[in-house]
Design goal:
Blueprint (H helix, E strand, L loop, with lengths): L12 H27 L1 H8 L3 H25 L5 H21 L3 H12 L2 H14 L6 H30 L1 H22 L11 H8 L2 H13 L1 H8 L1 H9 L6 H26 L3 H19 L3 H12 L3 H13 L4 H28 L6 H35 L1
């Protein structure tokens, strides 16, 4: 039963498992598409006759699409059923990736990536709400974690596969693969997700009012700032392995696999932690993040310690699952908008972390300074949590006084 409605549909365990699998398949397609450009920067640069930093702008265009599209499409799709909106968003995603595969030039590709990023956040937000709606309240965190698992598995399987395809047959084939995955998600969702997944929703103005509240913005702030450390380290992982650990570039895939395994463990663990500790799981994960990020510069010096450290960095992804589930509790009638905006916040972190890390590296502090910079952002996230917790306690105390 979701926080939106007291009358969730009754489904068999098999139906629930198939629905969660279909939703996770969409997450797998999105994760594969989001990160594949990082592995194909050189191929794309050679194809269009531009340099690699210019291709980095293509990655930024996608992230900007996520930030813009998540709240916009959530509001525009307000009157659609959950099922219809999911199908539209994933169909839109397929078209965006098809346009990326067929892009004739650099600027066309940048525009196509912006378009492809638009449905990203809204899809995950709606998928999380559907997952919570078809499961008991005490299992909401685990259900959201299973949806997010598709994104984590894409780091382990989808991204390496798409990168290999792009390097072997041409980078356009990687986006072609994502297009097929997105269409497969549309057909499977259409088949396994029954009608009637929609819960009563307010009009757009009511949703905007409930969204524009301090508990929602503080939760989003924790993700936007506190999660930046993971991206700070991950974005510069390859040069760190080569220049600090002293391994060859052929070793880099092992680092990516370790990160992917950590992401899977974190996603599953985050769901379990939310079901057990609710919002109190956030400071636990942020403290864990601080420790992991401070240890990383020392662990990066040896091939024997760097892989466990990278795996530990990947587990920081648990925070995304916890915050996604927490927003369902504090968003009131702004469920769709808040759930979608969570991914805008994390894409802001995806931009902030590499930017801060790049500043430290350029200033001469070395590749491993990303760990210290990332730990600082996690400390900031912890401060925002303390603010959110104090505000929650004041609200609870006021409610008790009114009841008395």
């Amino acid at each position: 039963m979701s926080p939106e409605s007291p009358t969730a549909p009754v489904l068999s365990p098999r139906q629930v498992a198939l629905i969660l699998f279909a939703l996770a398949m969409g997450g797998f397609a999105i994760g594969t598409s989001e990160f594949v450009v990082m592995g194909l920067i050189s191929e794309i640069a050679r194809s269009f006759g531009v340099n690699e930093p210019q291709v980095g702008h293509v990655i930024s265009a996608y992230a900007l699409g996520v930030v813009v599209g998540a709240p916009t499409l959530a509001i525009l799709g307000n009157r659609l059923s959950r099922r219809s909106l999911l199908l539209c968003l994933m169909g839109f995603y397929a078209l965006g990736n098809l346009a990326s595969a067929l892009a004739p030039g650099y600027f066309t590709l940048m525009g196509a990536r912006f378009i492809a990023g638009l449905p990203h956040g809204a899809y995950f937000g709606i998928a999380a709400l559907v997952a919570a709606r078809i499961t008991p309240p005490e299992q909401r965190g685990a259900a959201v974690g299973r949806v997010m698992l598709g994104l984590a598995i894409s780091l382990l399987v989808g991204n390496p596969l798409a990168t290999w395809m792009g390097q072997t047959f041409g980078w356009r084939w990687a986006f072609g693969l994502v297009t097929l995955l997105a269409m497969a998600t549309v057909f499977m969702t259409m088949r396994v997700l029954p009608r009637g997944m929609n819960a009563p929703r307010p009009d757009a103005l009511r949703e905007l009012r409930d969204f524009n509240r301090k508990p929602v913005w503080l939760a989003l702030g924790i993700g936007a700032i506190g999660f930046a450390g993971m991206f700070c380290v991950f974005s510069y992982l390859t040069p760190t392995l080569v220049h600090v650990t002293g391994v060859r570039e052929s070793f880099v895939p092992f680092g990516l696999v370790a990160f992917g395994i950590g992401g899977i463990l974190g996603t599953l663990g985050g769901g379990w932690m939310f079901d057990r500790y609710q919002f109190r799981a956030v400071p636990m994960l942020l403290v864990w993040s601080i420790v992991v990020l401070l240890v990383f510069p020392f662990a990066a010096k040896s091939p024997w310690t760097v892989l466990p450290a990278v795996l530990a960095v990947g587990t920081m992804g648990a925070l995304a699952t916890v915050l996604q589930a927490h927003l369902m509790d504090v968003a009131r009638e702004a469920q769709t908008l808040a759930a979608a905006s969570n991914h805008s916040a994390f894409n802001f972190a995806n931009a902030l972390g590499p930017w801060l890390g790049g500043m430290a590296i350029t200033a001469g502090y070395g590749w491993t300074s990303t760990g210290v910079v990332g730990a600082a952002t996690a400390v900031c996230g912890l401060l925002i949590y303390a603010w959110a917790r104090a505000d929650l306690r004041r609200s609870e105390a006021a409610a008790l006084e009114d009841a008395a």
